[in-house]
Design goal:
Blueprint (H helix, E strand, L loop, with lengths): L20 E6 L5 E6 L2 E6 L4 E7 L2 H7 L2 E6 L5 E6 L3 E9 L33 E10 L4 E7 L2 E6 L3 E6 L10 E2 L4 E3 L8 E2 L7 E7 L4 E6 L4 E5 L11 E5 L4 E7 L4 E6 L4 E6 L6 E7 L32 E4 L5 E5 L4 E5 L4 E3 L4 H5 L1 E10 L6 E8 L4 E8 L11 E4 L4 E7 L2 E6 L3 E9 L5 E10 L10 E7 L18 E6 L2 E5 L1 E2 L11 E2 L3 E4 L4 E3 L11 H4 L2 E4 L5 E6 L16 E6 L4 E6 L4 E13 L9 E13 L1 H10 L3 H9 L7 H17 L10 H8 L5 H10 L6 H5 L5 H10 L3 H14 L2 H17 L3 H13 L46 H8 L23 H6 L48 H22 L2 H10 L4 H7 L10 H11 L22 H6 L1 E4 L17 E2 L5 E2 L15 E4 L21 H5 L1 H6 L8 H12 L7 H16 L3 H11 L2 H17 L5 H24 L5 H7 L1 H10 ...
Parallel strand pairs: 13-18
Antiparallel strand pairs: 1-2, 2-3, 3-4, 5-6, 6-7, 7-8, 9-10, 10-11, 11-12, 13-14, 15-16, 16-17, 17-18, 19-20, 20-21, 21-22, 23-24, 24-25, 25-26, 27-28, 28-29, 29-30, 31-32, 32-33, 33-34, 35-36, 36-37, 37-40, 38-39, 41-42, 42-43, 43-44, 45-46, 46-47, 48-51, 49-50, 52-55, 53-54, 56-57, 58-59
Helix pairs in contact: 4-5, 4-6, 6-7, 6-8, 8-11, 10-11, 11-12, 12-13, 14-17, 14-24, 19-25, 24-25, 25-26, 26-27, 26-29, 27-29
Amino acid sequence: MYYPVNWPRVIRLPVLGSPVIHHVVCNRDKILVAVLSSDTLTILYNKPCVPVACLKRDAKSLEEHGENQEVEWKPDSSAIAVTTSKGYLSFYELSFVSDQQHLYEQRDSTIPGLRRESAELYIKDSVPAFTLKLSQTIPIDTGATGLVCIRDELMVATKYGHVLRYYWNGTLNRDYCLDLRRVPFCVDQLAARAVPITEPNTFITQIDYSPLLGGFAVVLNDGRGAFLTATTLKFDPNQVQGIWAPLDDVTCTAINHRYRLVAFGRRNTHTDVYTIDETTGGLQLSHTLQLSSKDFPGSPGPVQLLKWSPDAYMAGNWPLRFATLDAKCENLAVAGRTGFALYSFSTRRWKLFGNESQERDFVVAGGLLWLSTKVQPHVVMGCYNIGADRDEIRLYPRDNARLDNAFCTVQQVTGQILLLNLMGDTLLVYTSDCHISLFETETSGNGQLQLSRTQEIDVSTLGLHPACLVAATLTSLSHATEPQQPHGPSRQQNILLNVCGRVLLIQRNEGSDDSEEGSAYYSAPTVLASSVEILWVPNPDRLCPRKPHLTQALWLCCGAHGMRVWLPLYPREGDKGHHAFMSKRIMLPFQLHIYPLSVLFEEAILIGVETDTLLYPSSATSENPWLIPLCVLERNSQVYLHHIFRQLIRRNLGFHAWEIARGCTALPYFSHSLELLLHEVLEEEATSKEPIPDALLPSVLEFIQEFPVYLKTVVQCARKTEVALWPYLFGAGANPRQLFQRCLDSKQLDLAASYLIILQNMEPVSISRQYATVLLDAALENCSWDLAKELVRFLRAIDPSDADSATPSFSSSWKPGSAPSPAGSLLPAKISLGSQTPPVSPNPEDFNFLLGSTVHRPGSRAAGSMKSPSSDASTGIHREITRSMSETIPMSKNYSSPPTGKEPPPRKKSAPVNSHPITITADHDPPDPSLEELFMDLILQRHVRRLLSAGRLRDLGYLAAHFECPLVSWLSRERMRAARVDDFVSAIRRLHADFTWPFPVVSTLPVRKFSNRSISLEEKLQALEVDVSAAPAMTTPVSSDPPFQLRHNGEVSHPPVNGGLLLQTVEAQLKPHVPSQEEWSIQSEGDQISLAGEDRLNDLDSLQESSWGVHSITTEAASAASALCDPPLKANAQAELQLRYLLQLFTEADCLDWALVLALVLRDAMAVLRLVSMARSALTSCQPPNQAATIEIVTRLRDALLALSHWAETDCQGYRPFMNVIYGQVGILTKLILPHTNGPLSLLLEANSTSESASQGSGTKSRHTSVTLLTPLDRVTEEDMDIPVFKANGKVDKLNLPSEGAALQLTQQLEQSTKKEPVIQQPDEPPITQQGSGCIIS
């Protein structure tokens, strides 16, 4: 097929006469063009398109004979016949001027940039000179109405209904003239009676002849069309018979010779194409051509002219005739008017004949092929030897330096070569004598390639013209369906023939054992298909065992009938002998939207082109501008798997469709093919106006369920389809609720969100809201933040007044196969997300957490985050909402402990208030919009509690960055519940793992005793403490100022939350740490290990006596502290910013447990000091009802430091220097606790699990111990008073003392510690010891 490309060329004709053009006709060689106007005949040369001859009639001739009407060429282009309006036939002679070398002279441009630098850029073929003159003019009775040339005669139709036959010398052949009134007409040649035309004044207005079809296509003046044929090509008037075309509005006609097609243009802008039925001899409709309504809207009018595009010549590539690429696409062979040339893409050079005379001595005809051999590739061609006047097969080697006939293999043939084809080493040659010859290629001893004829087949018995054979191909395809192996030793060589669009298969059969050698024969041809333009056979060397159906299929392009594939059907294993009635192959048709050029068998894709036309005015200033078309040609591809699946499923061959699909699941567009399959079937069946007796949609859905992409395929198809068709889709068995749940079970949350939109349109609002809540919970749990954010917007966009709306009017009884209801009753009231969705405002937490901003302005957050849009309106409602029947949600930041003797209530797994979803009934008023905000807040609060309980702070940070929620106030509420840390060591390890934060490493510098060396700056810093004793007590006044206050420096600050721990600035001083009598240590009996630092305590006097003062060590101490706090391995900067963001967040929320853990991970000593200061201020300013909870938190901080110090000593030595720096805060926290105790304190060391595990910090194995110290004595029973003893090897043993002895001694010692009096150990009283282990409290 040929498409017009780009802009049309406007050819300027010599202005000699009338500008009105009546007829344009090319000669047989398509080299010369005759242009006929009213008074002028102009001859144009095709390449370049320039006029070579012109003849203008004078006024006398026009007056006597009339204006020109129609023109026709003589077959040898030596004469031209022209009919006139007054019934005359003029003959013109066109002769070549031999004494003139060329008609035009090539001149270079005067512009330097347009000049040609090489002589090769000039057109070497000169334009010849011609002479055109009138030879004679003869009269035609009643005038000529049609003109056509057959061989050496000219047939002229007249208004009397005659068809006159003239020789080109003007003589009339009276014996073979026709009279339509004597020609019998019928609908086919088998009709028992043929009736001649009886209507008066009936004549032929247009006539076309085809020697391959053996007849004339005629158009009558009354609009009827017919085909005139005869038993012989002489067209004896007594043998001519007419066959009617079933049309009455025919305007023109044209015949396709090679495909034996007759086209009739009609007044309704359509063109009907007919073929000759070989059984009846009648005209059988093949297809109809219609103009696109997009390019030609309305009624363009009747068809006035038809022309079939010519084969084996492309004007755009003139003078190229053939071109072919080798198998690796590395070399190109092209043939023009004479000879051929090679081009290498690797070297970018042409390879030509060394002797130009050899190039001009032959013309390539029939084809050009590449033959791959073991020695080197060869170019195979059919050619005509001009000097020897014979037809030959030539083979030229590729690797020679120059093309030369000396290295060419020549094989003479008996007729003109029309077709060439290769399969392996076998060459097929089809000649004009209707013979197919098979040659085998062999390499001789000198390395030259030889051809030997192996078989010859006579196809003249088909009874057709030799030019009707469009294609001849060697193939291994056959009617059998046994899987073939590539490079097989006995590969079958069958022949496929395309005869006038009919594909014939000729199978090769081997002779019996008794027959003589080489007696193979070919069976009778079998017709596979008709109306075929192009066929593609699989490459036998590229057969894929995983895709035998696709790689052993025959593909056919059938023009207007679309594509067809001859697909093999392989029986199931174990089914041999059954279903013998089934065909071994099946022909499946389907339509395309592109014109195919190539088929990729393994990739299951078609490569083709599509065209588009745009119309532009010729001039913007002209009063009557005419439109110029711009034709655009684009390459495109199309998948075809869904067409094959659909055809097989329709024929109840789903198993074969599944076998094909199983081998194609790895293709990237496999899921898209399934989606196209579902979409096309849904659109066809759901929009059908009539009931479908056997609906295909349920079978298609059942087929798609066999693959993992089923959920994705269904939802994508639904999203791309009209909402009115959804009930038909989901009524076939695909319940959207079940599909939604399957998506949740398989963690395909994005697909579940797509199904949520479907549920929104098909279910009541309350149902869709419930499913959205479930999906939101799953999205939060799987950290799908973007999806969760969209779901929150989706839920907030639901109008509360729609909560009680009825189910959309989708009829659940609409099943596949039934006629659909009117579209108006199927459309629901859709919920709009655009107008009801709150605008997205920049959140400081987004920038801080995602962008990692290091600037943390004091008070830059109202309760830690942006305010909820409806928080002001719903404040009172929030205070009244209960989490359960027995627990209220506190709105203040006061520390509150659970009721005595009661455990905190279990967290609810459902988001709605009071364990019930918010439901709306028709009997109640519409709900307050603040309830929707509360509904969202409860869901987010529940997930915040989950993240806190699991220690997933990184996910908590992402949640804070994506949602506008009062996170600080939520964290403040959970500080005694979910935000409480029970195992600080595990919490630190979890942060290191989640944030990919490296553990500190142990310094490789040698450690010396204090007594034998000078004290280093690090060790001096370890002996320093921060004195905050002079800090004033903080009060908690109730402020009436607005939530956001502006300081004098322009920064935003927040008022303190009533009753909570206060973040304030205190005056702190670094001074040497002097251990008081209240401080204690735990040491082992042998090699003593002191958590407080034994060497540091021994040298405190020398530190005090040194010259270190507050002012003198400030710069040096800060530098050393910075060196200690910085991680030795530079971690991810983004992770550090995230950790510091969380530290600020938890500090503002007074969640001191997690704030301490974050400060330790960051090794931020100043943050630890701030937390201790906050604990001191809270304990000083708290009210009596909250004192117990505050003491518990401070105690837990002190115990956490002790436990982490022990962990650093035993498991993670990298943390030891930092823990030594901040260890002085243990004593400060102890001082804060002791004055508030109700009575004597007991020392409780609670050893938890001692399971051995690998330490992430030091790489050694140890036992983890959870230490709880200084708990009020009245809370501990005597049975639980087990004192652990820390040994030098890091193991923990429990010392079960007698109840009275333990209680008595510990009470006495702790009472003395409370009174701040030193405990003096009596010489005769040994410490409490047992079996070499001891616990000394000093």
